[in-house]
Structures are given as C-alpha cells and as structure tokens.
Specification:
Length: 370
C-alpha cells in the first residue's frame, strides 16, 4: 500500500509538470493532477486489489493480456497488435521496468491522454479567438473524462486519437492519430474516415437547405454504418450482435437517445444492471454525457453557423459510429467519449460571437490534409 501511494504521488507530480506551459501553470491541469492523485489512492484504499474490477472488468482483462505478453512475448502482426492492445500495454510494460505497478501505469497513461486532450481543445479555442476559462473545461474535459482517467482502461487514449483527428493543428499528426485509432478501435477509425469523406464531398456544393441536408446526412450515415457492421459480421463471424434490424424502431430510438445521453433506456435488465433512477442520478453528476450532445445539436441548427462543415464532419462520424453500435448491446457513454471533446469545443464556439478584428474564424481549408 505504501509503495502504491508513493508511486501515485510521484506520478501526480509528473502530471503537474504538464500543467506548465509558456512559463505558467494551467489551473485546470494542476487541479486535475491533484484530483487524480487523491482519487487513485482512494480507490486503492477502499477496494484494495479488487479495484481492477471496479466499474469495468476491462481493467482486469488488460492486466491479463499484459501478463500474457510478459510470459510469451510480442507477436508482431496487425491482428495481435489490435487484439492484445499493444499501443496501450507496451508503454505499461516499459513503466513496469521502472517499478511502477501495472494498474497504476494504465491509469497514468489515461491521465496523460486527458491532459493532452485538454491542451488540444484549448489550443483550438485559442486559435479561434476564444479566451480559455476554467469553467469551459466541462465541455471537453469534464467529470466523465476525469472519472475515466482514474481507471485502468483505454477510453481516453481512443478519445485523444479522435479528438486530435478533428481538432489537431498538424496534418501529419492527424494521420498518425487515425493510425493509432485503427489499432485501438478499428470501427471508430472507419467512422472517422467516413465523416471526413462526407464533409469533403459536401464542401463542393453551395448549401441552401441546411436542415434538409443535415437530415439527409443523419439518415444516410446511420444506415450506411449499420450495413457496414452487418457486412463485417458476415465476413468475420466472431463479431457479436443483438440481432437488431437496420430499420427497426429500437435501432432508431437508440440513435436519438444517444443525443440525450439516455441510451440506457433502450436496453433491458439483461444488459443494464442499475435502475433507471440510479442511472439518471449518475447523468446529473456526469453532466457532460448529455449537456455536450444537446448543445452541439443546438448550435448546429443555428443560422449563420461558421463551423457548419466542421460540425458536419463530427456529426456524420458520430452517427455512422452509432449505426454500427446500434446493432450490438454495447452502447454506453464510454463509447461516445471519442466525440464529446470535439462536440463540446464546437458547441462552445457556437455560443460565442467572433471578435470584430477576426470575423473569419474557420475556413474550409481547416478540414483538408495539406
């Protein structure tokens, strides 16, 4: 226990180093480093070794894969790299060489990714002439992000890949982020490519009926995503499904429920173990799960939307992805996490008037790889 606490404090201090930029410490990142350190120690004190099954047994699965890697070594093939999560577990393996406990190393990687997501989003806001303030972090690094950072999962690594693909400055690094996403969640990478291609195509036209265009994008993206999943299921029989139909009422209700953070209402007791009242109370704490998608849609429908094409890219990617997951029993707030930061940033910008000296905050060139 003592060793775990000391290592947690040490890693928390490392996190605080990331809070320093241009000679100043960022308030959010300092507070995050403090909260993270206290939280990971608290989980250890309360649950002990059973913390690896807290919230999700995916933590235990990753540790089992790590033990297998340490026993039999690495097998350098694409399938093994994806199935055995090499991009996550090789850095953990490296940290273990310095004595850092594996579960703590997993959590530390999540924390580093959240800190990086915060920087990417803050840089994007600054580049679009918006002064970054502490309260704005709830739109892209809020309670759900912080909660997941104290667990030994891989959600924030995936979220970082998607967020940088949407908002990152460097075209080369956006390609790298896409490649990273392929190895962490391949169907998300397919969705990212789909959304980018859709936006590139729509950019060619002068849009007069915005609402009709948005409706067409939502319907077509969801249908295409659903059929992509069903096609993959037949090509790879091991893929799990809940026998949903593309045009069933349940599938489309699940689509719209995701924009309200209420996707748990579309499942039965065999999937969701908590009561509806408990899940709603959790939503009130993890307010970003429903606040961000709702405000994103509100700003998307506003007149004279300067960020229409960027929002279109995020929307088509998100709906295509939902078309895939609507055919499964795996649809939670964790799965929506890769989109929340970009949605939140664009929603935040949608409520802010541009500065008079910089009216053109975004252009179509922003969506192109140079």
């Amino acid at each position: 226990m003592t060793q775990y606490i000391l290592q947690s404090v040490l890693l928390g201090c490392v996190l605080s180093i990331f809070a320093r930029r241009n000679g100043k410490f960022n308030t959010y990142q300092i507070l995050f480093a403090l909260i993270w350190t206290i939280a990971v120690i608290g989980l250890k004190v309360i649950y002990g070794d059973n913390q690896i099954t807290f919230y999700s047994n995916d933590q235990q699965i990753q540790l089992e894969i790590l033990n297998k890697i340490e026993t039999i070594g690495l097998n350098f093939s694409i399938n093994d790299a994806i199935d055995n999560r090499y991009l996550i577990l090789i850095p953990v393996w490296f940290l273990k060489l310095f004595g850092i406990q594996a579960i703590l190393a997993l959590k530390f990687l999540q924390a580093i990714c959240l800190s990086t997501i915060y920087r990417v989003c803050s840089d994007y806001l600054t580049a679009n002439n918006l002064k970054v303030k502490l309260y704005q972090a709830i739109f892209y690094s809020g309670p759900l992000f912080i909660f997941l950072s104290i667990l030994g999962l891989r959600d924030l690594e995936i979220a970082l890949g998607a967020t940088y693909f949407f908002l990152g400055k460097s075209a080369n690094l956006r390609i790298v982020s896409l490649l990273v996403t392929i190895f962490l969640r391949p169907h998300l990478a397919v969705a990212l490519i789909f959304g980018w291609l859709v936006t590139k195509y729509i950019e060619r036209f002068k849009i007069k009926q915005v609402y009709m265009m948005l409706l067409a994008v939502v319907i077509s993206s969801f249908i295409i995503g659903s059929y992509v999943y069903l096609t993959a299921k037949y090509l790879r029989p091991g893929i799990q499904t809940n026998s949903q139909q593309v045009f069933s009422q349940d599938a489309w209700w699940r689509l719209f429920a995701n924009f309200l953070g209420l996707q748990f209402l579309t499942f039965g007791d065999d999937v969701v173990q908590m009561s509806v009242s408990q899940l709603i109370l959790l939503r009130l704490f993890f307010v970003d799960t429903f606040l961000i998608p709702i405000l994103f849609v509100v700003t998307l429908l506003r007149d004279r939307n300067r960020y229409l094409f960027m929002q279109m890219q995020v929307l088509s990617t998100f709906v295509f992805f939902l078309g895939i997951v609507a055919q499964t029993n795996f649809n939670s707030s964790r799965q929506n996490l890769p989109f929340l930061a970009a949605m939140g940033v664009l929603a935040l910008l949608g409520f802010v008037e541009p500065e008079p000296n910089n009216p053109d905050l975004i252009s179509k060139k922003r969506l192109r790889f140079k």
